[in-house]
Amino acid sequence: MKLETTESNLKALNLILKKGKISEPLNEAVVSIIKAIKQNNVLLATDISSVKSLVSGSMNSKRGCYPYREDHDYNEKHLGNSVYSILDGIHFAYAIKSDKLPSGMVIFSSGGMTQGGKITELEHPVVEKINAEFKRTWEKTEEVTKL
């Protein structure tokens, strides 16, 4: 189940590590995506790359508020794209390959709504951190919408 774009994905991810300005948790996620791709673990690469939905474009955000941060303007200039954009493309490709709905996508049908972004319960430290952050983010969103 190897993707045709494996080499270009690895090249883009390695460029992020070499030249990108990203937070330590985002760096850890990128390293883990690289390992998953090299192991041809499509499901793990899909789940970890869903971190793109949590990326904040400002390195100045409070660390506890947004752990997955990038310097959007710097990365656009030095990488040719934001880290969010690079991860979004990788996530979409791997989600399709693993028969999952990409994070942030929704399908409306006569049967109701299906929401993407549900990541598995794989036992992997980075997946667990991403799951926790998704949960924290949704809890915050629910608090705000109750106001």
How would you characterize this protein structure?
The chain has 147 residues and is mostly helical. The chain has one domain. 56% of the residues lie in helices and 5% in strands. A two-stranded antiparallel sheet has the order 1-2. Helix 1 packs antiparallel against helix 5 and helix 2 runs antiparallel to helix 3. The longest helix is centred in the last third of the chain and has 22 residues, at 125-146. The relative contact order is 0.16.
Supply database-style keywords.
147 residues, mainly alpha, 6 helices, 2 strands, 5% strand, globular
What level of helicity do the residues show?
55-70%
- The topology string of helices and strands comes to HHHHHEEH
Please provide the count of β strands. Answer: 2
**What's the overall average pLDDT, rounded?**
84
Shape: globular
- DSSP helical segment count: 6
Low-confidence stretches: none
Strand fraction equals 5-15%
- For the terminal residues, how far apart are their CA atoms? 47 Å
The total tally of domains equals 1
Using the CA coordinates, give the radius of gyration.
Answer: 15 Å
Structural class estimated from helices and strands = mainly alpha
Largest sheet, strands/sense/barrel: 2 strands, antiparallel
Lateral arrangement of strands in the main beta sheet: 1-2
